Amino acid sequence: MEDKAFPVSWDAFHRDARALAWRLAAVGGFSAIVAVTRGGLVPAGIVARELGIRVIDTIGVASYEEETRRGDVRVLKPLSETILTLPSEEVLIVDDLVDTGATAKVVRALLPKAHFATVYAKPQGRPLVDTFITEVSQDTWIYFPWDTGLTFQAPIAKGAP
Ligand SMILES: O=P(O)(O)OC[C@H]1O[C@H](OP(=O)(O)OP(=O)(O)O)[C@H](O)[C@@H]1O
Ligand SMILES: O=c1[nH]c(=O)c2nc[nH]c2[nH]1
Ligand SMILES: [Mg+2]
Asked: Does the C-beta of 61 come closer than 6 Å to ligand 2?
């Protein structure tokens, strides 16, 4: 059960996704991006813009049925022919985070030589990622800006988490 909160603003996410793009630019050699939807769509757009990549596909994977409840990993939308006919080492897979690694494992199995990049990583999933920017502890829940809004926060003295 996650007991630490790691809220991420749009600014912070953009900065971190750009930092990821800088690292990936140093790796080089990518001709296409696969965004792991839905969470990978936002960082994939930022990375694609920074690296000048216009061939972008999605793989639709769901690993959690609702918020913090874990469900089965299911492929809801497969890779397109455009990606499958490329040498897989030219493919960059982008997701927002790796947590248990269950999603990454399924996607990696489809493109074994592709480069897997995430903005955030938790220790359990970290070995499955080639490049990431920030590691948070396993008991941390990352709150992304597209899932959150501005709300009142209780003062620490009154039991804020
Ligand atoms: O390493 P894991 O334990 O598999 O968790 C990481 C995955 O979980 C989240 O996606 P989710 O399945 O919740 O769907 P979403 O991207 O549509 O929000 C996140 O975007 C990653 O893809
Ligand atoms: O918004 C999210 N934050 C997380 O920490 C997480 N882990 C798996 N899936 C997640 N989704
Ligand atoms: Mg996801």
From this structure: no
